[in-house]
Design goal:
This protein is an alpha+beta fold and 449 residues long. The chain contains 13 helices and 15 strands. Helix content is 31%, strand content 14%.
Length: 449
């Protein structure tokens, strides 16, 4: 496309945009530039490997270098059908299809008219960065359109604008601060997003692009931290763990029905380690192995900080990693019982209400009939706390950002295959034996009576 001299653009009057210069196409160190200076990144030329028709097979790759600044996505995502535009002279190459298209929609006075006359979301981005049009008035949304209901339930221009989710891996549904933080980390670690997503598609990875990018960056950050820890011979700190968890991509877990707070249908909770299959055996979760440095960092953090007042060696086969929800009072029915838990982050409240005498079996006492006077409040913010997960427990309300990590042993752990035990031990899991589990159970009894 012919790039005309950018026209002056009136400052946007809605939310403050992230600082300029963070590009979405990130390979090695990114080029820092203002939005008006963004240039098209051409894909490297490749030698022809077959007849000319072979080129058509790679048609979907055309434009992969066409990337935009994050603030451009932020701006265009807030356009509404009635947002007023003023197009400048046709900057396209005369005689080209893009020239003919621009000639039609340059007459538009609103976003809705421009879309009706043939412009596309990609055109709005491209031409916004080059100053080919000005935003001269009309309403603009305070949040990205894709965050306001389902696109399938809308029509016309609203549907088109709601379908626009921004760059793969940094979609507009992400928290703006986290998106900017991840973009900077991707630049620091030199990730090529196109390659990353293509590899995920080829391996059948079912994570969303956003979740995958966040987890990949968290894993890279964990690896960097582990190297630094080993170099200076120090322990993994709470701050190290919080830094990584802030980046980690939590999926919406709809399966933990026993912990769901009232009114919620999902929580941010991931499990590392082996999970029991319907056949009775165990399979190590994909997260555990795909993001091994992340897992190792958490394991080392736990083993580095076992409290002196816990007399036994703490062992575990799994880690529940939870973010920002207060699990309602429940019992963990699928583990051996003895678990260690700690909460990190900047928060107040969030203590664990624990019922140490909730041991009746066959039948179990209805949780709703338990009396608060029979519970104890455990502060999880200072150190790891040992408790029996098979007894009722739940998290009190809290304010702020709170991550909790539970190190537990799954029932039937003896069925974990030897080669899987070896893989887990290499990552950092401190695996149980019958004797060690018995000792942990006795320690829990000693602590709570």
């Amino acid at each position: 496309c012919f790039e005309s001299k950018p026209r002056a653009r009136e400052p946007l009057r809605y939310t403050k945009l992230p600082s300029a210069g963070i590009m979405v196409k990130i390979v090695a160190k990114p080029q820092v530039m203002k939005a008006k200076q963004v240039q098209k990144v051409s894909a490297p030329k490749q030698a022809r490997t077959g007849p000319r028709t072979k080129k058509l097979q790679n048609h979907s790759q055309r434009g992969r270098g066409l990337k935009f600044a994050l603030e451009t996505y932020e701006a265009v995502s807030r356009f509404m059908p009635q947002t007023k535009l003023k197009y400048g002279p046709n900057p396209k190459t005369k005689g080209s299809k893009s020239f003919d298209r621009y000639a039609k929609y340059m007459k538009a006075k609103t976003v809705a008219e421009a879309l009706k006359l043939g412009t596309k979301p990609a055109d709005l981005l491209w031409e916004y960065e080059r100053g080919n049009y000005q935003v001269v008035g009309g309403p603009q949304s305070s949040t990205p359109n894709c965050c306001q209901g389902k696109a399938s339930e809308k029509t016309g221009a609203e549907k088109v604008l709601s379908s626009f989710r921004g760059p793969s891996g940094f979609s507009l549904k992400m928290d703006p601060e986290k998106r900017l933080m991840c973009a900077k980390l991707a630049a620091d670690f030199g990730y090529d997003l196109d390659t990353l997503h293509q590899q995920a598609d080829e391996t059948g990875n079912n994570e969303s692009a956003d979740i995958q990018m966040q987890r990949t960056l968290a894993n890279a950050l964990a690896e960097k931290t582990l190297k630094e820890v080993a170099k200076v011979k120090r322990k993994v700190s709470d701050a190290d763990v919080v830094e990584v968890l802030k980046v980690w991509g939590f999926a919406q877990n709809e399966t933990r029905l026993n912990v769901l707070p009232q009114g919620q249908t999902w929580v941010h909770s991931d499990t590392l380690g082996p999970l029991r299959m319907r056949s009775g055996g165990f399979r190590i979760t994909d997260l555990t192995l795909a993001y091994a440095s992340f897992t190792t960092l958490l394991c080392k953090w736990f083993t580095d900080h076992q409290p002196a007042d816990i007399a036994c060696k703490c062992v575990f086969t799994g880690i529940n990693v939870n973010a920002n929800y207060a699990g309602r009072i429940h019992r963990d029915g699928n583990n051996e019982g003895p678990s260690a838990i700690k909460a990190v982050g900047k928060f107040s409240g969030g203590k664990l209400r624990y019922f140490p005498t909730d041991k009746q079996r066959n039948p179990r006492t209805d949780i709703t009939t338990l009396k608060l006077k029979d519970s104890v409040m455990l502060d999880l913010s200072n150190k790891f706390v040992l408790f029996d997960g098979n007894c009722a427990h739940g998290v009190e309300k809290f304010k702020g950002e709170r991550f909790s990590l539970v190190f537990f042993t799954a029932k039937g752990y003896m069925k974990i295959k030897e080669h899987d035990r070896a893989r887990l031990a290499k990552i950092g899991f401190c695996l149980p034996t019958e004797k060690l589990i018995k000792t942990m159970k006795q320690e829990v009894n000693n602590v709570y009576g």
